[in-house]
Design brief:
Elements lengths: L14 H12 L29 E2 L1 E5 L5 E2 L64 E8 L14 E5 L2 E5 L4 E4 L7 E3 L16 E5 L4 E8 L10 E8 L5 E7 L11 E9 L3 E13 L2 E13 H6 L3 E7 L23 E6 L2 H4 L3 E8 L4 E8 L37 E5 L2 E8 L10 E8 L4 E8 L4 E10 L5 E9 L6 E10 L8 E6 L6 E3 L2 E6 L5 E4 L6 E9 L13 E10 L3 H9 L4
Antiparallel strand pairs: 1-19, 2-16, 3-12, 4-32, 5-6, 6-7, 7-8, 9-10, 10-11, 11-12, 13-14, 14-15, 15-16, 17-18, 18-19, 20-21, 21-22, 22-23, 24-25, 25-26, 26-27, 28-29, 30-31, 31-32
Length: 594
Amino acid sequence: MTVGQGELRVGVGRAWLAALVTVLLLTGIAVGSGDSAAGAAPSAGGAKGWSTPGPQRALSGVLQPGAVVHARTGPPTPAPKARHTPRRPGHHLRRRSGPVGPDPVLVPDVSPRLGAPVPDPGHNPTPPPGDPKRLTLFRDTTVPVTTGFDSAKPEPSTDQSGRDIFATGNDHAEFSRDNGRIWRGLDPYTIFGFAPYFCCDQVTKADPRYHRQQWVLQYLHEDGTGGQGHLVLANSEVGDFVNWRPYTLTPSTFGYSDKLSLDYNDVVIGNRYLYLTTRIIDFRRYGDYSVVAPGLLRVSRADLAAGRPAHYDAIARPDLTAGGDTADGELRVPQGITDVAYAAATTLPVGKGRRLRLLIWPERSKWVTTVDRTVPPFRYMTYEVPAMEGDCSSKDKVVNNWCGGTTSGGVFAARGRGYLWFAWVAQQYGTKRPFPYVRITAVRESGLRVVRSHDLYSRTVGHAYPAIAPDGRGHIGYIDTFGGGTGNTRYFPGGMVALFDRITPVSPSVDYFLPGKGNACPVSDTPQEGDWGDYLTIRGWHHGGGVWIATAFARKDNAPVVCSASGSMTIKNIVFGRERDRRVYEHGIRADHR
């Protein structure tokens, strides 16, 4: 179905959404203009039916449940294993793809309207201890790696319900039933029987309504043949963490050939559905893959919780990839959505540093619509185009370029207080933005208009790998990795949290809670180019507003390390908020939520 004569089919979505999109079409705001039928089923190999960004009908199907797996747990004390992990996709090979399309932004908006710099590490004025406004860590836990593998690129994910915590990394999974005092591990390499094909990119999210812990694991063929990768979406009762019901997703779930693979995953909970985003990739061997299309799937929460065949709808979006042999192209659904799902992308061919592409998907409709929104210009950051790579190294190069492998295509999202918040990294520029920084843009949900943008930046360190989440009041919690340095001051990559709330609605309160002690593992044999992984995680507290759980990591030392080998890493699992909300946290861990 094409868009051009003011026609739009939205199924049975909410009336206001239908009216909104009709207004967008009549006023000439871009909604896409592909020339293939939006409702056409994609072909097995190329998925030409997905080429249009116009109104798009989802594929539907049923995920069949597997037998419940009773997992063996690891010891309750740390037990690192000195062995190499099978190689994972990692970052795409650093060959240059050349400019992508005309006119990417060269001169970004760095005007004062985008905010003042955040305080530097070590010079962060904060209210005194006990002050109700003070940004405070209520729990500061180091997660032991008891099973699996202690990776140099942990890419941690977590969530907590009451005293029950589940935490994953690229190569391990741990749980605690007593608020982080004692941990036991699950070995992701063996739990679902697909060893040696397990590979990384785990995420986890609690579903409080159904009292289930959702867990996504990724599997890739590492034998040189490539392809045939899949995901396992498993769930267990919160606090049990031992008995898991698995469901399997393959590229054919999204209408593509199962000779392809899936990679870079996330999950979000809506009213009726769990939403899963991933990338459909052509995986050939370690570090050698290209993104075919980002994928978005929604599956019935009730079906998953009951362990029955789970009904799903899915789309793929090749319009969001850079095309050719590149690794750019991602989607994220905002945490905190209800009966309408959104997703956003800034990929270079779509945005060129000027636009945000929004997908809108009401829960009662199988149709997805698309709108583009203009944002203040930023320099798109990617290692795949000459002169567009980020540089987070210290000026004396003692701290290596730990953020060179990330791109502006990684958009993280949250919904709160009637706004959609989107955060992505942007390339450094001149003396006003001497290091990579994070652009945060707010879109009013009613009308989908950009109402505010803010740059979280420093003139001393780079900021990258942002993640955001709403609390129960709709305020936004934030975590990222920082590092760099000027003059004789150096900061190895570490973790920072921040809050955007009524106390600091524009410039956030920040806390550099995790100092780093060493460099990112080097890319190939180039020590100045580091690989820090892909993402961090933050979640809103399930038991009240003003509190967040988050996870980040840093090196314990600066000894030489190989990215595919064991890394000497500190993995932090924290709960934070303002001191005034400590009672919300304490009530949550005292109550018996099982």
